[in-house]
Specification:
The complex is a heterotrimer of chains A (358), B (284) and C (292). Chain B is an all-alpha fold and 284 residues long. Chain B is built from 15 helices and no strands. In chain B, 51% of the residues are buried. Chain C folds into two domains: 41 residues, no CATH class; 233 residues, MetI-like fold, CATH 1.10.3720.
Chain lengths: 358, 284, 292
């Protein structure tokens, strides 16, 4: 049980590449924190610095108010679950789980007791004498967690632990990790690039981009109230709709499309209007006319994709607008829908900096 | 259909010709070694085994003066074994240690030391025969096992092989082991060596064959007959046959080639899969 | 290298120490000696030595016997490389095609790897022995006035044949594993695109084997230059009249038998440069290979 503090943590590699550009963070005792971001954003590096696998270039990291910058990984009282499990392939499950305890010189009887406790908690008790290559992916994942649990660390570190599993198993293990963490109540830091995993697991999540924390907060807070265009785009599925616009004093403008009802925005700068697909609704006097391109039926919901009439051409990705509705609405292709949104729910960002203006 | 059949027949025909080309000489050597010298001189090489198997091999192996002036076949066999096994084991130990240091440690001289090891590839024995002989002679190591084996061990091949293999071991294993509190030595012994078991076996096999088959180095290193390996004995046989004599003992010459061939071939055949894997992997 | 490495001030040095020590004593020091001696001239009684710059190089490299050996080595290496590669490739392709007996063929074609060159040399020597060698008799019966003790072409034929024989196995092993590492889906795709097996081989299989082939070429050239020493030494020994001297065999002859230290060292240094060139080619190729 411990709190973790990061103060001005930076990482510069010897070749000059900067992975982490100053991170400050306080993680409370028992909290489940998720670092989420695209690949290469520095989230794994940050985790590995906490683990002691990467040197800290600047700043410091404290666990329970003890500075650990120069403490060896084995003495930091942290345990880590790796993406590829990193099980020792030549050792049995028992051997894998007890290796760390043996190195600490723990008596044999105590090791056996702890390993068996952890194994029954994870329901791998029957596999203790098998080797990793005789186990399924999910079972290996559990062994990797078991190896972390037996050490009774102050902090659990998870480095994309579920990305090698198939979709179904991933959901199952996600729930199990959450349950386990609640039960053991150990401070945990979890790295992922999957926003669903991040949203569902985290007490608080930190969206990381280009070595910096874009925003940190509870999942719903980040969803409802993103501080930047990046966070708005990263959190939420399907992605937020983004429409490049300018402000003429009263309206947002893109080509022939004029959207009224905005005030207090800067003129002559390029802006981005962001609207979540579920904030759109069908309405006869709505602001948009959507020309239906594709309808995806997901069962309960339908996702309707198309281009907005009147907009100037822009790159294909942003041109496609998404409208989330229930399964009863099934428009024919090439027809048009009139869509509206509540101006209160709209988000406006400055394109250059990505900062939220409204 | 008949087209296809013809293709199959030619394929097998080519392979059978290949097999005969590769195997027949050795078979003839063996068959001829089991005949009496008179028969060989009269009728030439033999395709079927004769009745002198035990006689020939007994003389070559355990009769004083049977094949060399003063050394028995068994002694040469023993010397070959020592060279093959000593070379293989020494090579694995030395190169594994060096490769471990180079791959898993950050230290200041890592790069220059790696290049020094690399340079051995540029200096095969053949280009430094005479000064090498002088060095070994100067150190008083002529006719010793140490002088025979140790200088052969240091070339880069084994180190490169293990370096390549260690680099393919997932990084996370070391990271997990460090979180588990393993020391540098602990990781090597507890994790890396057990993981490398198959690779070590493959390298041992290849290096045994390479060591057994050494020719030039033992040739200049050994001056006394009692230190000859079987492969060096070949040279003496050549000498004896070239000088002539009353009745050329061709059957013994053939027997010696068979003795020099049999152990390494046996090893390669028995451990075929490991051997092929090791050979192909090592060159990547 | 590794993302995470140990940092320790003594252990890594201890671990590389054995290898480095052996290398310095038995590789670098003798090589340096060879280079140094190649600039020295000893008088006939070994009483005084003189620093003569490149005279040894001039004397040896422009001597007819060295040029003869260089010429023979070039032809010899080319023949051995192409013949053994070609034959091994043919066998590997066929062995990869058959289903019945595949492992028997594989085993019987590769085991000769384990035979030492001088052993192969002596076996071959006996096969061509004028008294008992059936090959010798056979060639004469079919009307080839064969005598490798007197005729340089015949002598060359003998060493090339034995050297090729000895090298087929290694090439076969590499070609076969190269063929087996071509994904089956690629073979299947090519079967749908092209009907002729011969054409398929030259347009799909052979280009995919190019990295293996190139690597083997370097290996085979090195073999022909250096490892065939054992074969030459147990067959022709350079006879007749130096016609089958390879460069390496000549270094040995001149240094050990002829006791011409300076000249032999100069030849060694030339060989070092040759190896260097070969290695550079090999490594440039490896860099390219990464793209595959």
């Amino acid at each position: 049980m411990a709190n973790v503090q990061l103060n001005g943590v930076r990482k510069t590699y010897p070749n000059g590449a900067i992975a982490v550009r100053g991170v400050d963070m306080t993680i409370d005792d028992g909290e489940f924190i998720v670092f989420v971001g695209p690949s290469g954003c520095g989230k794994s590096t940050l985790l590995r610095m906490i683990a002691g696998l990467e040197k800290i270039t600047e700043g410091d990291i404290k666990i329970d108010d003890r500075q650990i910058n120069d403490v060896s990984p084995a003495d930091r009282d942290v345990a880590m679950v790796f993406q590829n499990y990193a099980l020792y392939p030549h050792m049995t499950v028992r051997g894998n789980m007890s290796y760390g305890l043996k190195n600490r010189g723990m008596p044999k009887a105590e090791i056996t007791k702890k390993v068996e406790e952890a194994a029954s908690l994870l329901r791998i008790g029957d596999f203790l004498d098998r080797q990793p290559n005789q186990l399924s992916g999910g079972q290996r994942q559990r062994v990797a967690m078991g190896r972390a649990i037996v050490r009774e660390p102050k902090v659990f570190l998870f480095d994309e632990p579920l990305s090698n599993l198939d979709a179904k198993l991933r959901v199952q293990m996600r729930i199990e990790i959450k349950r386990l963490q609640r039960r053991l109540n150990v401070t945990s830091i979890y790295v992922t690039h999957d926003q669903t995993e991040a949203m569902t697991l985290a007490d608080r999540l930190a969206v990381i981009n280009d070595g910096k924390i874009e925003q940190m907060g509870s999942p719903i807070e980040l969803y409802k109230n993103p501080a930047t265009l990046f966070v708005a785009s990263f959190i939420g599925s399907p992605q937020v709709n983004r429409l490049p616009v300018t402000f003429d004093g009263q309206n947002l403008v893109n080509g022939d499309l004029v959207i009224p009802g905005f005030t207090g925005l800067p003129q002559k700068t390029r802006l981005v209007l962001g609207i979540r697909p579920d904030d759109l609704h069908q309405s006869g006097d709505g602001q948009f006319t959507l020309r239906v391109d594709i309808v995806e039926q997901h069962g309960a919901d339908n996702l309707i994709y198309g281009a907005l009439r009147g907009t100037e051409e822009n790159d294909a990705d942003d041109a496609e607008f998404c409208f989330k509705t229930d399964h009863s609405l099934l428009p024919a292709l090439e027809t048009t829908l009139q869509l509206g949104f509540d101006t209160e729910r709209a988000m406006v960002f400055e394109q250059e900096s990505g900062q939220r203006l409204l | 259909m008949s087209n296809w059949n013809w293709r199959l027949i030619t394929t097998h025909a080519i392979l059978i010709i290949g097999v005969l080309f590769m195997s027949l000489p050795v078979w003839v050597a063996f068959a001829t070694s089991t005949h009496a010298p008179e028969t060989i001189l009269r009728d030439g090489l033999q395709i079927w085994p004769g009745g002198h198997f035990f006689e020939t091999y007994r003389e070559v192996l355990i009769v004083d003066g049977g094949v060399m002036k003063s050394v028995l076949g068994t002694t040469m066999l023993k010397n070959s074994m020592i060279l093959g096994i000593g070379f293989a084991i020494g090579k694995v130990i030395v190169s594994m240690l060096a490769a471990y240091a180079i791959v898993y440690f950050r230290f200041r001289l890592a790069v220059p030391l790696f290049w020094i090891i690399f340079m051995t590839l540029l200096l095969p024995l053949e280009v430094r025969i005479i000064p090498s002989y002088e060095v070994v002679a100067g150190l008083g190591l002529l006719d010793t096992h140490f002088g025979l084996i140790v200088p052969l061990i240091a070339s880069a091949t084994g180190t490169f092989f293990f370096r390549q293999f260690f680099r393919s071991v997932p990084d996370e294993l070391l990271e997990a082991a460090r979180l588990d509190g393993a020391t540098a030595w602990g990781f090597f012994v507890d994790i890396l060596i057990p993981l490398s078991k198959t690779m070590i076996a493959a390298i041992l096999i290849i290096m045994f064959v390479v060591g057994w088959n050494q020719y030039l180095w033992p040739l200049i290193m050994t001056t006394k007959e009692e230190n000859y390996t079987l492969v060096i004995g070949i040279k003496q046989i050549y000498q004896i046959l070239a000088e002539g004599g009353e009745l050329p003992q061709y059957q013994k010459a053939f027997a010696l080639t068979i003795l020099a061939t049999f152990p390494p071939v046996l090893v390669v055949l028995v451990f075929q899969n490991w051997f092929v894997k090791g050979l192909v992997e090592s060159e990547k | 290298m590794k993302r995470v490495q140990f940092e320790h001030s003594t252990i890594p040095y201890l671990f590389v120490a054995p290898q480095i020590a052996i290398i310095v004593i038995f590789f670098l020091w003798p090589a340096a000696q060879a280079i140094y001696q190649s600039f020295l001239l000893e008088d006939a009684f070994g009483l005084s030595t003189q620093f003569v710059w490149f005279r040894n190089y001039q004397d040896t490299i422009f001597s007819p016997s060295w040029l003869q050996a260089a010429g023979f080595t070039a032809i010899f290496a080319t023949l051995v490389t192409f013949l053994s590669l070609g034959f091994a490739l043919l066998l590997a392709v066929k062995a990869n095609e058959v289903i019945r007996g595949a492992s028997t063929y594989k085993t019987t074609l590769m085991w000769a790897y384990a035979i030492a060159p001088p052993v192969a040399g002596l076996m071959g020597n006996l096969m061509f022995n004028p008294l008992i060698g059936d090959l010798y008799k056979f060639f004469n019966v079919i009307g080839w006035d064969f005598n490798h003790k007197l005729d340089s072409f015949d002598a060359g034929f003998v060493v090339v044949l034995i050297s090729v024989w000895k090298q087929v196995s290694v090439n076969f092993i590499f070609f076969l594993s190269g063929l087996q590492s071509i994904p089956n889906s690629v073979n299947e795709a090519s079967m749908m695109d092209c009907r002729s097996p011969t054409r398929r081989f030259w347009t799909i299989t052979f280009p995919l084997l190019a990295p293996t082939t190139f690597f083997l070429m370097v290996i085979n050239i090195t073999y022909a230059f250096f490892e065939t020493f054992g074969i030459i030494d147990t067959t022709t020994r350079g006879a007749p009249g130096g016609a089958t001297n390879t460069l390496v065999f000549k270094v040995f002859q001149d240094g050990f038998r002829g006791a011409d230290l300076g000249g032999s060292s100069a030849q060694s240094v030339v060989l070092m440069i040759l190896v260097l060139a070969l290695t550079v080619i090999q490594f440039r190729f490896i860099e390219r290979k990464v793209h595959y």
